[in-house]
Specification:
58% helix, five-stranded parallel beta sheet, 5 strands, 211 residues
């Protein structure tokens, strides 16, 4: 089991190749996917998130760690198929219509995935109807919307209103984030939660689904 410490260290250091190699070995040795994810991958992402919060790691490190974690997770995903208990909840995430920024959104998606959520990433420039369609198809616990421009952040309210019109607002928790967004704005538009960074997004998401 000593090699799995290499997995932890590789993710923290943002090294994709060793993370993937060690995961392959662990799978061949019959190590339970859940153990690999919970005891090593999630803990590694939490460590990186903490360093980020403490100002000891920055966005590039977070992205590299997310990439390493994702590479290892891809190998484990086929082994988790049909195991609903393998994820703690499902999150649908996207950058709203008119906005093409995705670094922050992808960071949040990586952190959520690294911490046990099943994440469906819709991408950027997503109109309300696409969010609604995806909610009906994917049935997520949480919808995360991101915006980096003051001109596009108001579109988040349109999405929430569209959810109400469709009668599905009470089926999903709504989280918002992005540089111009703040707690007051989130409350004004009727969102359930708001986060300033990827690490607090995970904390908030867990809180929203009662973990």
């Amino acid at each position: 089991m000593a090699e799995l410490n290499i997995l932890y260290n590789s993710i923290v250091a943002g090294k994709l190749e060793p993370a993937v190699e060690v995961t392959k070995v662990a799978i061949d040795e019959g190590v339970a996917p859940q153990l690999i994810i919970n005891d090593y991958m999630i803990k590694a992402m939490e460590e990186v998130g903490q360093r980020f919060q403490d100002g000891k790691a920055f966005v590039p490190e977070l992205l590299m760690a997310g990439r390493a974690m994702k590479g290892a997770l891809e190998l484990l995903k086929p082994l988790l198929k049909g195991d609903q208990s393998a994820t703690i909840g499902k999150v649908l995430i996207g950058t709203v219509k008119g906005d093409l920024h995705d670094i922050g959104k992808n960071l949040v998606a990586s952190m959520l995935e690294g911490c046990g959520f099943d994440v469906v990433n819709l991408g950027v420039d997503i109109p309300a109807e696409k969010f609604i369609l995806a909610i009906k198809e994917e049935k997520p616990n949480i919808l995360c919307m991101s915006a980096l421009l003051t001109t596009t952040m108001t579109y988040m309210q349109e999405v929430i209103e569209a959810l109400e019109q469709e009668g599905i607002r009470n089926q999903v928790k709504v989280m918002v984030g992005g540089a111009p967004v703040n707690e007051k704005f989130a409350r004004q538009i009727g969102a359930d939660g708001y986060s300033t960074n990827a690490n607090s997004a995970v904390t908030k998401a867990k809180e929203l689904i009662g973990l």
